[in-house]
Structure formats: structure tokens, C-alpha cells
Write a structure and sequence with these properties.
single chain, alpha/beta, Rossmann fold, 2 domains, 5 strands, 47% helix
């Protein structure tokens, strides 16, 4: 079951309130009232999963999506997550040809060094650079844009200051800014998230652990999804899907992927029956083949089998 828990569940379970808040934030941003959403919680709690849901909704509605990610400080560079997001956004489109944007371009050069020629510039306050980002996004995607910055707890101080300005001023734009970060240990991003909490246009969603019923529902959804994938593999007659073992048919594979617990002799008799009818002529006969089948299912092959 450990490998199952690490897979992506096709349905988000136990996060109805958070999904509703995210959907409303996207709708408001596209309508011209920008929003910032902070998804805060411990590692593995589902922050990125919710961010992917928002991205999927936006893509379905034709809204551009740009994603960036902070990394641990030993390899981090200034503005890394925002640079990654902006480069992704402008990978297939040119910078806006707008005379009103020209005066902001020098301030954006550290974020887009490959797209904007460097020019001598004095020290720039975070707020001024943040306004330059808002001006750029507003001209590039006037109908709305989603920017997702992940793992902000690892972000450099320049990025955190920039993001805080965006959160403070997002409501007058068509931007949906989605930020994911851990709730500890202490960091610049955690402090900024606390300051942003309760401000106009900012939605702070603290993710707790799922309750028992929600967790069971999530596992059922995941196992059902995995079973469906296995059935497709069976229909396609892919022997490598079963590790090269030719006797592992749909029933046995389904039981295995759904975690059905059976006594060992049930599996062994099943393989023995298949062996007698299909491959009994092989050296060792059906008993040997049945033992091979039981071993492939994790069974004990040390005791004699009643074939």
C-alpha cells in the first residue's frame, strides 16, 4: 500500500471548502478583481495538488498559467521562482509592445535577463519592482492570468518582498497569485504570510490533515483509479505490465492492485489450475508453475502445493 499512497489521487477529497475558495478566487480574478491565495501546511498535505486544480481550471477557461518554484538556499538565486514563472509565460509570446511599459522594463531586467537588455540602475525598492511586475502582467494578459509560486518557504528575501507587494496590491488587477509554503520552521516567507493574512484580496488557507473518513475515501478513489488503469493494460495484452509472468490475468492482478487479502492457498490453487489447463506440459508440471505464480504474488513457496 505504500506505493499507492504516493500516487496522485484523481479526485481531491476532503478539501471542498478550499476548492470552493480557489474557484471563487479564479472567477473574481478573471472578472478584474485580483486575488492572492496562500496554501499553507506541512509537507505532503496537499498544497501542490490544490494548485494543480487551479491551473487545470484556468487552462480549461483559456486563462494563461505560469508556474515557478523556489529551491533550498544553497542553490537559490534572487527572484528564481518569479523568473521561472515569467519566462514560462513569455516562452511562446513576445513582451507586450506597449509604450507605457518601456519605463518599467529596466526594473524587470533582473527577473527577465534573457529578454531585457541590462541597463545601469540604482537600488530598486521591492515595491517599485513589484509594481513593474503588475504592469507587465496586466499588459500581457488583460483577460486574467494565474501565477503559481511553489515552495515559497525556500524563497530568497528579494522574492518574498516582491510577493508581499503583489499580495498587497493584487485586488486592482486581473491576477490570481497562488502561493504554496510550509507553516514552519520560521522563514521570511512564513513571516510574510502572517502579515498578509487578513489583508484585502488575500485568502489564507491553512491545510490540516484529513480526517479518517476523508482519508479512506481518498484511498478508495486512488485504488479504483489504479484498478481502471490495470484493466486498460490487460485489454492491451501487455505482458510486461505483469513483470513478464504470463499467468497473471485480470482477476489476480485486480486483487493485487486493490489490496485484497486472501489466504496463500487460494492464489496457489488458482495458479495450479491455470497451469494444469494451459502449461502443464512444461518441465516441473503444474505444481512448479503454481509455485512460480505464488512467488510473483509474494506468497510462500517453501511448503508443498496441492495441485
Amino acid at each position: 500500500m505504500g506505493s499507492v499512497a504516493q500516487q496522485l489521487c484523481p479526485v481531491v477529497v476532503g478539501r471542498d471548502a478550499e476548492l470552493e475558495a480557489l474557484r471563487a478566487s479564479l472567477t473574481e480574478a478573471v472578472a478584474g478583481t485580483g486575488r492572492a491565495v496562500l496554501l499553507v501546511g506541512e509537507p505532503g498535505i496537499g498544497k501542490s495538488r490544490l494548485a494543480r486544480e487551479v491551473a487545470g481550471w484556468a487552462i480549461e477557461e483559456g486563462v494563461p498559467v505560469a508556474t515557478g518554484r523556489a529551491v533550498p538556499a544553497t542553490t537559490s538565486a534572487a527572484f528564481r521562482p518569479m523568473t521561472e514563472a515569467l519566462l514560462q509565460l513569455f516562452r511562446r509570446r513576445p513582451l507586450p509592445d506597449d509604450a507605457g511599459l518601456e519605463r518599467w522594463l529596466p526594473l524587470l531586467q533582473p527577473l527577465l535577463p534573457a529578454l531585457i537588455e541590462p541597463s545601469p540602475a540604482a537600488e530598486v525598492p521591492p515595491g517599485v519592482r513589484g509594481e513593474a511586475v503588475l504592469q507587465l502582467l496586466g499588459r500581457a494578459a488583460p483577460g486574467g492570468v494565474v501565477v503559481i509560486l511553489e515552495d515559497l518557504h525556500w524563497a530568497d528575501p528579494d522574492t518574498v518582498a516582491l510577493v508581499e507587494y503583489l499580495g498587497d496590491n493584487v485586488s486592482e488587477t486581473s491576477l490570481l497569485l497562488v502561493l504554496t509554503l510550509r507553516d514552519g520552521p520560521a522563514s521570511d516567507a512564513v513571516d510574510a504570510a502572517r502579515r498578509l493574512r487578513g489583508r484585502s484580496g488575500v485568502n489564507h488557507l491553512a491545510l490540516g490533515r484529513l480526517g479518517r473518513d476523508d482519508e479512506l475515501a481518498r484511498r478508495r478513489q486512488l485504488l479504483a483509479h489504479r484498478a481502471a488503469r490495470e484493466r486498460v493494460a490487460v485489454d492491451q495484452h501487455d505482458p510486461h505490465r505483469f513483470g513478464g509472468w504470463p499467468l497473471a490475468g485480470p482477476v489476480e492482478r485486480r486483487d493485487r492492485c486493490l489490496g485484497v487479502t486472501r489466504e496463500r492457498h487460494v492464489h496457489e490453487r488458482c495458479y495450479a489450475r491455470r497451469a494444469r489447463t494451459g502449461m502443464g506440459e512444461l518441465p516441473g508440471g503444474p505444481v512448479k508453475i503454481a509455485r512460480m505464480g505464488a512467488a510473483s504474488q509474494g506468497g510462500d513457496i517453501s511448503t508443498p502445493l496441492a495441485a
